[in-house]
Amino acid sequence: MDEGQLRAFATTGKRRDPRFPDLPTVAEAGVAGYETSWWHAVYVPAGTSSAIVEKLTGALQAVMQDSEGRAQLEEIGLVAQYRPAEQVTQQTSSDMASFRKIAKESNISLD
């Protein structure tokens, strides 16, 4: 794509994207109450042994602390942040509740 063909109006997160400091958030652009963000997590099946979970947790923490790895993620717009399993579970539940509400209010179903 040639430069200048795409014009961004706002970013959807709580905060401005550090790569585009002049780009406002949707809320700053005048749409109150709108916010969405994408996040990624690593899940394991229920019943996975604590030894495996601990090993995976240690590896993920190491990756999140590696400056080169963080820089590569930030280059493509991702912010590396380790969160304990309890926080991921809470975020998943919160997001699912929000999506259910939106689907219900919009009369969206999977049928």
Secondary structure elements and their pairing?
Blueprint: H1 50-65, H2 67-75, H3 85-105
Model description:
It is a single chain. The protein is an all-alpha fold. It folds into two domains: about 35 residues, no CATH class; about 55 residues, no CATH class.
Based on the model shown, name its key terms.
flat, mainly alpha, 111 residues
Query: Helix/strand-derived class?
Result: mainly alpha
Strand content: under 5%
Amount of helix: 40-55%
Overall tally of domains? 2
Biggest beta sheet attributes: none
Number of strands: 0
Radius of gyration: 18 Å
Amino-to-carboxy terminus distance: 38 Å
Summarize the structure in short.
The chain has 111 residues and is an all-alpha fold. It is built from 3 helices and no strands.
